[in-house]
Amino acid sequence: MKLQGVRVLDLSLFLPGPYLTTVMADHGAEVIKVEPPAGEPVRSIGLRANGESVWFRNTHRGKKSVVLNLKDPADLAALHDLARSCDVMLESFRPGVADRLGIGATAMTALNPRLVYCSISAFGQDGPLRDRPAHDLAVEALAGTVSISLGQDGKPTHPNVPLADVTASLLALSAILMALYRRETTGRGDVIDMAMFDATLSWLPNATGAVFAEDRPPRVKEERQWGGGAFYNIYDTKDGKWVVLGGSEHKFVETLLHALGRADLIPAASGPPGPAHKLTETFLRETFATKTRDEWEAWFAGRDVCFAPVLDLREALHQPHSLARRMLVRDEEGNLHLGLPIKFRDEPGTLNPKLPKLGEHTAEAIAEARKRLADG
What we know:
Helices cover 39% and strands 14% of the residues. The protein has helices spanning 16-26, 54-60, 73-84, 97-101, 105-111, 136-143, 163-186, 196-202, 209-214, 250-259, 266-269, 278-288, 293-300, 313-318, 320-324, 362-375, and strands spanning 7-10, 30-35, 48-49, 52-53, 64-67, 88-91, 116-121, 190-195, 232-236, 242-246, 307-309, 328-330, 336-338. The strands form four sheets. A six-stranded parallel sheet has the order 5-2-1-6-7-8, with helices on both faces. A three-stranded antiparallel sheet has the order 9-10-11, with helices on one face. The chain has a two-stranded antiparallel sheet with strand order 3-4. The longest helix is centred in the middle third of the chain and has 24 residues, at 163-186. The two termini are 25 Å apart. This is CoA transferase.
């Protein structure tokens, strides 16, 4: 597998860091999860299946668990030895905490110059907001994405997908892999400062037109991607469900409106989003309300239009395409897992469903690290 031989020391908690290291573990990295004596919080958060948190199962499979109290000198020395034996170290403390504990970037890279050290935090290691406590929703509020997530009443609503968490996680993974690649030439690691805030802002190139071009916030309901376009919108169906049109290219507009007998609407519906789309949107709302979701799916079959039924999460995970792509995997014990989204042809990843018991690998991992150091 691509990351075979890479050793990762993961001190992160909750979602961004653990998701990142799960991807690495799925592709062959040895991930040593350092947990506080009370354990990773998500061991006890959310619904459980077969005795384990579903959240924990999907972010800690295939890892080793080491329990250390970093305020204890012996445990701190063990952490230092682990870091000296690893390629990557990941932490998600508030800025300054790792330094106070004696495990900050400066100390760790001095011990191991080849170490790639990554900090994931809400707002980064510097700047006016660095010390502000925050999880995903608060970061999104300050990054502006909550303001563009409006409900039908025009008020901000929960974004639902943890955008700040996942964007930081994926960009941090990219940064770690870049640093490991560069290390092959320089022989030295690097230090990564990944802010969820920065990551969220960076994923908005299609949403900043009004700000950059006209120095104003977007008029959300007039923007194509947020309901201002008739062919990029959500529509109610006869049975109380929903469908979407998800592509506003002229060919899709022309195909559908010809099929529905309203070619007269094509010019306006092919133009810029906003008030000019209202007449087409009204027609489509009335039309979609005449059939059930499944009837519309059957009607659209074979038509070259960006159309999709709105599936609930269970339907989405159990649909034939998810199963064909192995994005829903059931292990030998019957537990369900989210599958591997990165699919290599020659060296595919492997989902290891084994979950570590709290502290299961403490003695083993420390002994292995010290043996490696002794062997040079």
